[in-house]
Amino acid sequence: MKKKIIAMLLVSVFVAACFAGCAKKNDTKATESESVPVESAQNTESEEVTGIRAHVDELASEVDYNGKSFVYMGGQSVNFPTKEEETGEITSDALYYRQRDIVSLFGVDWENVNLEGSEEAKQSMIDEVMAGGDSYDLVNGFVRSVGRPTLNAGVLREVQDLETIDLDQIWWNQSIRTNYSLRGKLYFLMGPINVYNYLDTHVVIFNKRVTHMFGINDADIYQSVKDGKWTIDKMFAFAEAIPENGTGKGVYKYAYPEGLPFLFGAGYTITHFDEDGVPYVESTLPREYSDLADKIVPVFADPAKSAFENPKNKEDFEEKYGMTVEDLFNSDLALFMFPETAAAQYMRSYDVPFGILPIPKLTEGQSEYYCSASSWSTGAVYILKTARDVEMISRITEAMAALSQIYVKDAYYDKLLKAQSIFDLESAEMLDIIFSSKIYDMADLYCGGDIDNLGDYIKILVNGFTYDNSNLASDYRANARIVAMNIKEMMRTLDNN
Fold this sequence. Notes:
Number of helices: 19
Strand order of the largest sheet: 8-5-9-4-10
Low-confidence stretches: 1-43
């Protein structure tokens, strides 16, 4: 039943949803069925959406839980509706619709437990399992601050073999089994079921007023992506239309670049796996890493080309340039910026048209694009080891994930597209490419302490691919030894649990 996402069909659903939303504003009292964007546009419902609804209906037709409690807990408020009703806020309403459909189809009594913090969520999970309880059916949280410590504490259930969870479906990220399994065991589920799936993805955005000023054709940029020719060199070539900003009073080619997403964009990963499925990192800097750093650092670290802060000099961007990086970009002082997809939300307050692009390939010969999840904000859902009604939990989790492909995805496409002053159809196609090429890396689990510390290993990679690659090989070698010890300890803890 796995289907390829068809961009233009999604756009038609999106446009119909927008018109439905506008009509609703003119009604003094809209009915519940009228409130659902996709349902209010039945005649334009895509084949994909029809198939998803059929899958969820099939899951629900086999059971009736007759008011049994289903408790959804977590420490990320963005994953909960703001109220148990429609509010007009697009993401909150999407989560409400998802919850409403689950209650209606499965007959459960749904309860949200929003603890408003990763530390509290993590500790509640550990305490619950240590007490032998099953108060929580499904939990959401950041991988670094919730997933890793609860995995190490031995409180998470394996999910790869749960009967009703079909990891081949489009609503589960296809990178997780490859890059997040430990000896073939998977403890985290990732996809649009956690809203951060649409917030944590590295992208490139470009300022359309700047392209107009310097005669760069927006259509050519988009077409290079669609033709599979959007590479690092192609990005550099488009930026060549802008003179170097030696005085600091002109326009920069790049605003606050970070090189590490380009490592993933080239098809490389930090973590590798041995024949037993145990993660490892190379003990010495791989040659392809070095070659890539040699290619991008001279550009990203050139003050005539890039606006950036150098951590070695302890420079603060705002003090250095007199404005934030967002203000710089939105003041038409930079062509390219490299945020996460969450940036599109706060950029709605700026009056600047911008285009969204995937992280570029290394070469045209590369088979596909790769857009990495941020180490800061990767989100997942989890099932506790002491959960008793695993059949119900896994069935509803699968249905939640499938419905998220309709409601949550539609909501975030809406947000990301509406973030622009000028809507263009190409952006929908770009988002399809970006989210279908999303990848994760196991380094989130063994690097750093809590969410405020990416770890020395990640830091040297960030610096070595962005600002200064002169000591990258030696710094890498020293930190790789520490990483190897951390992995060994992580696997020992996991085996003991």
